[in-house]
Each structure stands twice: as structure tokens, then as C-alpha cells.
Amino acid sequence: MKAIFRKLFFPVLNYFESGTEAYIYKTSHRSILIFIGILFSGLATAVFFVAQGKDLGYLLPVVIFGLVGLVSLIVGLFGNERAVAKIWGSR
Questions:
Q1: Within a 10 A sphere around the Cβ of 72, how many other Cβ atoms?
Q2: In the chain, fewer beta carbons within 10 Å around the N or the C end?
Q3: What does each C-alpha distance from 3 to 7, 45, 46, 91 come to in angstroms?
Q4: How far apart are CA 45 and CA 41, in angstroms?
Q5: In 10 A of CB 57, how many CB atoms?
Q6: pLDDT tens-place string over residues 34-74
């Protein structure tokens, strides 16, 4: 199942998994990344439902928080160690 999702999200994963530089990976980084992804996705969902029907300016935070949450979840769940370390900026 993981292989199917890796193929589906290959554009995002290829960006974060590319490179040959050294990196420092800790398993806690993956756990925190998944937590941040859930947090931002929940925030985007909450803003969408609370501000719905008002000015269309509410869509900007929904899109930004949603994209940050989605990328965090994709890399946290399906990315390799290099991808997680690249998001953290570990060198």
C-alpha cells in the first residue's frame, strides 16, 4: 500500500528525497512532522467550516494551512529518512 502512495505522491517526494549531501535523521523528527501535518490539516479544516459563507479571504489561510499539512503528512508518512531530514534542515 505504501508503494502505491509513493507512486501517487512522487513529485513531492522526489523534491525532498533528492540530493547527495549528508543529513542527520532522528525518528522523533518523523513523529513531530506527522503531528504538525495533522495540526495544520485540522486548522485548515476548522477555518474552512468556521469562516464559510463570509468574505472569500478566508480561503487563503485554508489553502496555505492545507498545503503545509498535506506536504507534512506526505513526507512524514511516505518519505524516506533524507526527505524528513531535508524538511527539518538537518545537515
A1: 22
A2: N
A3: 6, 28, 31, 27
A4: 6
A5: 8
A6: 999 999 999 999 998 988 877 788 889 999 999 999 999 99
